[in-house]
Amino acid sequence: MTRPVDSGIIFIARIALAVLFLWGGVMKLLGYAGFVGYLHSKGVPFLQIAAPIATAVEALGGLLLIVGFKVRPLALIMAVYTVATAVLGHDFWNVVDPALQREMVIHFWKNIGIAGGFLLLFVTGAGRLSIDGARAPRGGLGR
């Protein structure tokens, strides 16, 4: 993929993914006690470590996606994180209320789809409209 339009599309994809995570990270910071309570209700182990890591992954990950810095390794981290949040946060197999279970199924598969987007970003790289692209030799997509 070396067409000029590709870098623009990759940039739009990075922004679309970043908005979700940057927003989530900021909301976690603003309502940190509530976020910790939610993790506790889900039985997440090592809350003292998990909560700040999750907040940092979302807030810093979102910012790094926007500027396009170290996107390949970041995309792998974000894919793993997104699958982990699907399994821990949207555990529809443990829900008995049919309406809530349906909603959890949707959120679970949404997260899996987002992880797929991150895997594609891992393959494409950040594109030219990024810090990675500015630092890369010309002829590629910022790999």
UniProtKB/TrEMBL annotation:
Membrane topology term: Multi-pass membrane protein
Report the main location listed first in the record.
Answer: membrane
Any Gene Ontology CC annotation? plasma membrane
Q: Which InterPro entries match?
A: DoxX (IPR032808), DoxX-like_oxidoreductase (IPR051907)
Which keywords accompany this UniProt record? Cell membrane, Membrane, Transmembrane, Transmembrane helix
Q: What domain of life does the native source organism fall in?
A: Bacteria
**Does Membrane show up as a keyword for this record?**
yes
Provide the transmembrane region boundaries. 7-26, 46-67, 74-92, 112-131
Q: Which residues form the signal peptide?
A: none
- Compartments it resides in: Cell membrane
Question: Which PANTHER family does this entry report, sorted A to Z?
Answer: INNER MEMBRANE PROTEIN YPHA-RELATED (PTHR33452:SF1), OXIDOREDUCTASE CATD-RELATED (PTHR33452)
* Annotated family: Belongs to the DoxX family.
Return the protein name: Inner membrane protein YphA
Q: What is the native source organism of this protein?
A: Paraburkholderia ultramafica
